[in-house]
Specification:
Radius of gyration: 17 Å
Number of domains: 2
CATH class of the largest domain: Alpha Beta
Largest sheet: 3 strands, antiparallel
Structural class: alpha+beta
InterPro entries: Ptrans_KptA/Tpt1, RNA_2'-PTrans_C, RNA_2'-PTrans_KptA, RNA_2'-PTrans_N
EC number: 2.7.1.-
Function: Removes the 2'-phosphate from RNA via an intermediate in which the phosphate is ADP-ribosylated by NAD followed by a presumed transesterification to release the RNA and generate ADP-ribose 1''-2''-cyclic phosphate (APPR>P). May function as an ADP-ribosylase.
Shape: globular
Family: Belongs to the KptA/TPT1 family.
CATH topology of the largest domain: ADP-ribosylation fold
Number of helices: 6
Strand content: 15-25%
Keywords: NAD, Transferase
Strand order of the largest sheet: 1-3-2
Length: 183
């Protein structure tokens, strides 16, 4: 499977598994799972044909590890980033003292005023390393990296969870717990 096709299938999977399963006529269960065979058949009917081998390739090679199979390989879901309601069943976890959030310079004034909010997603997404935050910020324009005082938030009672692909999730981050970091 060439890189262009891999990216195309991956982006379509993100749409279906994170935001609009109805686009191909599938429903996610409460944990965000859908049967692989059902997904492939529904995508085929919607004119977005790919094989199980191609799906396996996308899951295995996605640099952000966006997708995961159930232990038996029968179901698939997005690891995080949903705008549709799902419960990923992630246990609360103590965060590192500092986490990072990548964004673009255009959104910085609003974030510094209101803090980090999930917006259309279920959670605020944070990374454990600066490099990932820079990559995320670059997707939206000139990158800005914010340091998040995760230890302080946890001490205040904020709950953190970590997804299967290492993204840290929380409900919000108030402006007082943010600090801009030079990129």
């Amino acid at each position: 499977m060439d890189e262009k096709r891999t990216v195309k299938v991956s982006k379509f999977l993100a749409l279906v598994l994170r935001h609009d399963p109805g686009a191909v006529g599938v429903a996610l269960d409460e944990g965000g799972w859908v049967a692989v065979d059902e997904l492939i058949a529904a995508c085929d009917r919607a004119g977005r044909r790919f094989s199980r081998a191609e799906l396996d390739h996308v899951v295995a090679t996605n640099n952000k590890k966006r997708y995961e199979y159930s232990p038996d390989g029968v179901r698939i879901r997005a690891s995080q980033g949903h705008s549709v309601p799902v419960d990923l069943g992630l246990a609360a976890a103590p965060p590192p003292d500092v986490l990072f959030h990548g964004t673009a310079t255009t959104t910085l004034p609003l974030i510094l005023r209101d803090g980090l909010l999930p917006m259309s997603r279920q959670d605020v997404h944070l990374s454990a390393d600066v490099e990932t935050a820079v990559r995320v910020g670059t997707r939206h324009g000139r990158p800005v990296v914010l340091e998040v005082d995760a230890a302080g938030l946890a001490a205040e009672g904020h709950v953190f969870r970590v997804s299967a692909n290492g993204v840290w999730l929380t409900d919000r981050v108030p402006p007082a717990r943010l600090r801009q970091r030079p990129v």
